[in-house]
Amino acid sequence: MRCTSLILLCCGLTSAGWVSASPLLLTGEVFSREAQDVIVPLTTNWQARISHMVPEGTLVRAGEVVVEFDGTEAARAMEQQAETVRTEQARAERDVARLEKEHAQARFQLQQAEINLKLASMKAEVPETLIGAIEYADNQLAREQAVTAVEDARKQLADKEKSLDDRVYQAGLDNQKNDLQNAWWGEMLESFSIQALQDGYVIYGSHPWTRAKFQEGDTVRTSFRIAEVANTQDLAVKVWINSVDRPRVRPGEPVRIVLDAMPETEFLGVIQTVFDSGSKRQEWGDSVYFEGIVTFDGKQPDGLLPGMSVLVESRS
User: Fold this and answer.
1) SS3 content of the chain, % helix, strand, coil (to 5)
2) pLDDT digits (tens, 9 = 90+) for 196-236
3) What are the residue ranges in the chain where pLDDT is below 70?
């Protein structure tokens, strides 16, 4: 019995050693490290509908449209904004015209009051001995009243000038605000059409929650990466490492790379980076996966394209 237990223990150790030394297999895909991300632009309600996407795998040139979003709502809002601007401008012009008229009337009233003051002053200077005490007193009172009238007219003119200046200033601020809003809407509409900034292949992105690939007609949230324009000049392999296997993966570790599109050919590479933060991939269950980057040894293989699925096997 003791001998049998020893044999079983040895077999168990041997089996455990074999398991720990077994090669690690990782799933991944080819990606471009110089890809242009296509991000859902900012909208008023934080979401947009994809109205057009270049077919996946299409080779596009710099300047070509890759994705277009539905700009109907933004265009409608911009038209409403334009109508509001026209109404505000008409109201401002009417107010300014009214205030200019009131200002002109106040200036005329001041001129009249100053003329009346001059006349009242001339009469008040006539000696009492020539016109009598009663008339002289009336002339003095008339001059005092004329002085008060001039002061009131000047105050009224100053008030009208201030009202006119304030309204003109407010109209200028409103015009600046409207110009900024129009520019903002114009930039938003322009952002709904995304062009390629480089030559490359269009690769569709996947929804971060469902992992389903984006397509025309989808309603997507602002800041989602729905596609990329990937060139083929600097390709590498992106792998996903289960949290259970994470301790076994180290940067600098040599690996074998097999492309699903070229199963008969094996390429050599090395694990360049393993990111510290992990995340769940709902389509694979509740486990946490860490992203890693694998580069090819030597020259990049011919026929390699972004999006190709890959199986990576450790060589250590």
Assistant:
1) 45, 30, 25
2) 999 999 999 988 888 789 999 999 999 999 999 998 888 99
3) 1-21, 282, 316
Which DSSP symbol is given to 57?
T
- Amino acid making up residue 170: Q
- Give me the pLDDT at residue 21, please: 54
Cα–Cα distances in angstroms (integers) from residue 185 to residues 55, 66, 77, 219, 295, in the given order: 28, 21, 8, 20, 43
Query: In the prediction, which pLDDT does 96 show?
Result: 95
Distances (CA, A) of 213 to 220, 228, 245, 307: 12, 12, 27, 12
23-70+196-314 falls under which CATH superfamily? Efflux pump adaptor protein, beta barrel domain (2.40.30.170)
Rounded CA gap, 298 and 4, in Å?
52
Q: What is the pLDDT of residue 39?
A: 96
Do the beta carbons of residue 171 and residue 241 sit within 8 Å? no
Q: What percent of the chain has pLDDT over 90?
A: 66
Question: What does the DSSP assignment read for 134-178?
Answer: HHHHHHHHHHHHHHHHHHHHHHHHHHHHHHHHHHHHHHHHHHHHH
Give SS3 for 100.
Answer: helix
What are the sequence ranges of the domains in the chain? 23-70+196-314, 74-190
Q: At what angle do helices 133-191 and 72-124 cross, to 10 degrees?
A: 170
- The helix or strand, by DSSP H or E, that contains position 291, with its residue range, turns out to be strand 288-296
